[in-house]
Amino acid sequence: MKPTTNQKNAGEGTDNGGTGTWVVLQPSRIVKIVMISTAFWALVLYYMQNGDGGVASVLFKPSAFSLPLLPSVTSGQSPRPEHQHAGLGQAPPPPPPPPMVLADRCRGRYVYMYDLPPRFNDDLVRDCRNLQIWMDMCPYMVNCGMGPAMGDEGGAFSGSGWFATDQFSLDIIFHGRMKGYECLTDDPSLAAAVYVPFYAALDGGRYQWNSTSMRDALSLDLVEWLARRPEWRAMGGRDHFLVAGRTAVDFSRNSDLDHEWGDKLLNFPAVENMTALVLETNQWKPKQKRNLAVPYPTYFHPESVADVVAWQEKVRSTEREWLFSFAGGPRPGNTETVRAEIIQQCGASSRCRLFHCGAGANDCSSPGGVMRVFESSSFCLQPRGDTLTRRSTFDAILAGCIPVFFHPGSAYTQYTAHLPKDPNSYSVLIMHTDVTGRNVSIEDTLSNISPAAVKAMREEVIRLIPRLVYADPRSRRVDFTDAFDLAMDAVIDRVAKRRRGVAGSQD
């Protein structure tokens, strides 16, 4: 019996025994709705999973509940089971990696600074009236050792940052900069170097004319104090440094005879292990070659790079009306200087400005007077002073004046951390023996330098200015590398070499 259309089952079709008659059973309306709904939701899920916005993104905006909940984990608790991928046969995903730790920018540069008893520093400043027998040093102790602030000194200076700084005040200025050093540490085990804030230059000046026992008393006290410290015993002082802001000869007396000059600070065995920053090294004493020469303080102590740039622009644009100049006195009786010959040649030349100290209205202790001479000259003659070096060298460079030396020990073998390796790039050397032997004319030598070479040397001198000045210790806006920064780099590098055992026979 053949089934009729009234006997069909929904969703089925039957073949009548191959007779060719196929009966189609029509789906109900409910089945159609289910099929359309299923297809619609399948498309929605497909677009959402594949990041394609389209209709799905418009109709179904994501909410906080669209994302899987993160487990709430407190200390000592495990994630709640419902937040795990239970039943999926998979382990929970690994936790996210920890945030990157920023590199320690002070690594290898930490400095530990002793808190010395005040008799080694602050008490010396308080006793400023007794630091020199011929003058009151108190005015020069103000402003962290920079001295009283100055105005423009008749146009010699411009902007801010100018002070009447004494040439032997570096100990105080350096200590002020160290107090603001960004890599100070209270943990000596982290320190790359250990700073001893002893005001050796102030102590060395107050008893210059007294007995040797008085001159050496505070230095010996310091050595005994350091020897009791565990920080000292760690390396026997080889990682320690101090600032002795005078020439090394002032601290290198050989005997205990009262007529000999200076004290014995740098000759004490304990201090010989340390690094001393001095204004001039004693190059005839091999044990003191480990000491470092640093620039004399100048009158300029900028707060920021903007102060430096403004000054550089001023000296770059200054008209140089004199070919060369000399500011100083004759030093009668000193057979090691060529000052007499320099004064004679300069005085005889129409192209030389002679600022003869003590003659007439010339006052070499006037910062403005000396700087005006240097600012108006292309070359500034720098013979030795009482020793090989002079503060005047740094005043001349500060004025944009090319220094002319008469002995390599006046700069080239001294300030190796601060001056270029090529001395010809910023200076001229005329050997003192050629001047005293009257074998050379200073004017002719300088006149024969081409204008292009002069311009290049002057530009290099101006570029050196920030490297040779000490920024204002009170400033928190120091954003350039100054003489203090370069000195610190040299100290830390030297101590690191000692730690590695490659300092050679010096140690």
Radius of gyration based on Cα positions: 40 Å
Number of helices: 16
The percentage of residues in β strands lies in: 5-15%
Sheet with the most strands, sense and barrel status: 5 strands, parallel
Q: Segments where pLDDT lies below 50 for 5+ residues? A: 1-25, 51-91, 502-507
Strand and helix map with partners:
Elements: E1 13-15, E2 22-24, H1 29-49, H2 54-59, E3 111-113, H3 122-126, H4 170-179, E4 193-195, H5 200-206, H6 212-227, H7 230-235, E5 240-247, H8 269-272, E6 275-280, E7 292-293, H9 305-317, E8 322-328, H10 339-347, E9 352-356, H11 367-375, E10 377-382, H12 392-398, E11 402-405, E12 428-429, H13 432-436, H14 442-447, H15 451-464, H16 483-500
Parallel strand pairs: 3-4, 4-5, 5-6, 6-7, 8-9, 8-10, 10-11, 11-12
Antiparallel strand pairs: 1-2
